[in-house]
Q: What sequence folds into this?
């Protein structure tokens, strides 16, 4: 195992499976790079065979090693990294990763997810609505209030990967009813330098679901992003059939299955 610091070498490896590596490619950008650590193992010919990113920019560090299910070189790399990982962190790892870490960590599995790529932006405008509003940093308090109080049913997990700086990466879009936000779509990462963007923070108030509002704001956002970068994607829970249908209608296609989870080192004093 070795630590990598050559952005060009890391990018070349990630480009081999670029549609599944949007987040990692974006983390090469200057906004994230200083807060990243990259670890790798190599094959006998000297080429990178497995790569793991540890991102400590966020309140909860992320360990990100996206690869096909049960990819043994990636699982071996993650096992080797255990002594260097923080005591508590979030993971994006290959399906089946639990066997590599269950002896050392308590695993709160969030389930299987899929990485989707926008295959075509040609039909997005047909799904939009005339009253979609552009949102930005000046709407931060309102967006956070919506996410905290209106975007989910009682007992339904609020979820979502959100930090306020994400509002500065790209315009967000929303729909109002009665003067209040009832649906939003935002981003997790955007990098024009590396040509990638990922939709995120998509939410609709429960009483307004089933009316095409999420599809409309996602269509508007995806069209905006596609104007600036060639590779647009998102993550979605495999179990969330309605969301997957929505994204498939917009032209997104699955490129990889992976797992998300929260891990805590056994015996760690937090």
A:
């Amino acid at each position: 195992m070795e630590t990598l610091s050559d952005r060009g070498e890391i990018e070349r490896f990630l480009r081999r499976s670029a549609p599944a590596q949007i987040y990692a490619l974006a983390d090469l950008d200057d906004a994230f790079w200083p807060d990243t650590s990259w670890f790798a193992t190599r094959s006998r010919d000297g080429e990178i065979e497995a790569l793991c990113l540890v991102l400590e920019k966020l309140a909860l560090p992320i360990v990100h090693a996206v690869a096909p299910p049960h990819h043994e070189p990636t699982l071996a790399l993650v096992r080797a990294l255990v002594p260097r990982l923080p005591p508590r962190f979030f993971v994006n790892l290959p399906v089946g990763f639990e066997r590599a870490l269950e002896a050392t960590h308590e695993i709160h599995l969030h389930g299987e997810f899929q990485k989707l790529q926008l295959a075509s932006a040609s039909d997005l405008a047909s799904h939009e609505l005339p009253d979609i509003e552009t949102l930005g940093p000046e709407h931060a308090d309102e967006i956070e209030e919506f996410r905290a109080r209106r975007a989910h049913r009682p007992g339904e997990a609020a979820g979502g990967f959100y930090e306020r700086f994400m509002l500065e990466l790209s315009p967000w879009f929303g729909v109002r009813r009665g003067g209040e936000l009832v649906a939003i779509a935002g981003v997790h990462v955007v990098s024009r330098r590396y040509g990638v963007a990922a939709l995120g923070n998509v939410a609709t108030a429960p009483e307004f679901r089933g009316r095409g509002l999420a599809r409309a704001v996602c269509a508007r956002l995806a069209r905006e992003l596609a104007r600036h970068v060639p590779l647009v994607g998102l993550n979605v829970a495999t179990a969330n059939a309605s969301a997957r249908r929505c994204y498939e209608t917009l032209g997104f296609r699955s490129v990889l299955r992976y797992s998300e989870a929260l891990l805590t080192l056994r015996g760690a004093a937090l």
User: Anything to note?
Assistant: The domain at 120-250 is CATH 3.40.630.30 (Aminopeptidase). The two ends are 28 Å apart (CA to CA). The chain has a mean pLDDT of 93. The first strand starts at residue 2 and ends at 4.
